[in-house]
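Journal club side-thread
Mid-discussion, someone asked how the predicted structure for our own chain would compare to the paper's figures. Pasting it here so we can look after the session.
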Amino acid sequence: MTGDPHPLRHGLPLFLLAGVCLTSLDATAKVLVRDLPLLLVVWARYAGQMICVTPYTWHRAGSGFWRTRNLRLQLVRSGFLLAATCSFFLGLRYLPLAEASAITFTAPIFVVALSLPLLGERPTRARVVASLVGFAGMDIIARPGSAVLHPAIVFLLITAVSNALYQIYTRRLRNENPHTMLFYTALVGAVASTIALPFALEATAITWHDVGLLLMAGLFAGLGHGAMIGAYARAPASLLAPFTYVQIVWATLFGLVVFDQHPDAISALGMSVVVGSGVALALWERRRMHLT
């Protein structure tokens, strides 16, 4: 941070733009995974991020931006994000965009559950309550008879758990240079998906329309992560965290416009519960930081 007297004014527009781009990425991926191999779509997503992140980290951290004291933890952390991406895209093949996005936002539940055994940190009462409320919201969304009650919901739960582990390992690497962490986040996904790409392309017929959508996926990934980098450079994470859940609004709009998917009233209630628990926890954490 640079002592900006108006961090939210300068950081929030970029953060909201990042949310729009990343939700656009999800919507594009949902279209692509219906007809193309999952690994090809994942490769396009990480290639776009890599193109954006590498010059930025080089500029900010110097030529040694790739050096790390904890290579194994960096690889494990980034591997969990790759697993989250693959499982989420696979879940999108079968499930509505808005409800799927809402379920992945239950990752804090698993962060709370795993923080003690993996970090040795005892969760506060507020975190436990918010997690239980978020879990109740997920139950409402995935109730019997809903469009989300499909075997593919397992992929969304894997996404949430993988995201939680990614966040926990981010915490474990808190003494590392954040630009180095950002680089490895893109590198692991890009390298792994590139190695697997020949198998994904085998006997795959790709049209120019598919190529255009793959380029769009990479572009949205690059722009989204670039805008998020800019937002966090201008405003603290605690200030921006409550606005993360605006992405569910974008996901709902994309679901309506692109896929003609209308969440019913009960699903909307469940999504509101998930969002409300997350926003309340983010605001409480921000207030606690200011008091300490």
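Post-session note: The chain has one domain: 7-291.
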